[in-house]
Amino acid sequence: MRWWNGVSWSDTYQRGREQSQPAPDYSAAAPSAARAPGLAVAPPAYTVAPPAYDPNSSYPASAMPPAPAPAPPLGFGAAIASVFRQYAGFVGVATRSEFWYFALFAILVRLALVIPDIAIASAYDLDSGPLMGLWTLGVLLPSLAVGVRRLRDAGYAWGWIFIGLLPIVGTIILTVMLASASRPPRPTAMF
What we know:
The chain is an all-alpha fold.
């Protein structure tokens, strides 16, 4: 059996490590500690508690990790290419320009499909043409993925994307969240 000796892992495998290493003697570390009833050895007496992590304390600048540099804004074509490269990628972040250029692209393509869709629908006596539905299905997953990545970049949890399901107020709140500036994530579980 290998064990950790406080510095490195042991190189030998032994059976019954408890027999090969003596139990630590706590009485030498704390001679003034009283023994509790039923214990053969007194527990160690600590004079000072070990320091705990305090997020409000000030650390020297050298101890803090450097803040990541903000990503440069993407152009129209680069943003669309980036979204389609990460078609179903929900991991990472998306800049404001990446999100809003893709939203503009999706709306422009949808508007461009209106005329052929109406022509197809009228030619075949249909209520609506198939092109808008196919386009909506094609961009559903990348739209959700870039929305989740954009929320993460704005410092919100991914679950806030569901607030867009509320009819009017949810859409307004989600639009404001998606338009907000980049910032580090907030320490929340989901919302």
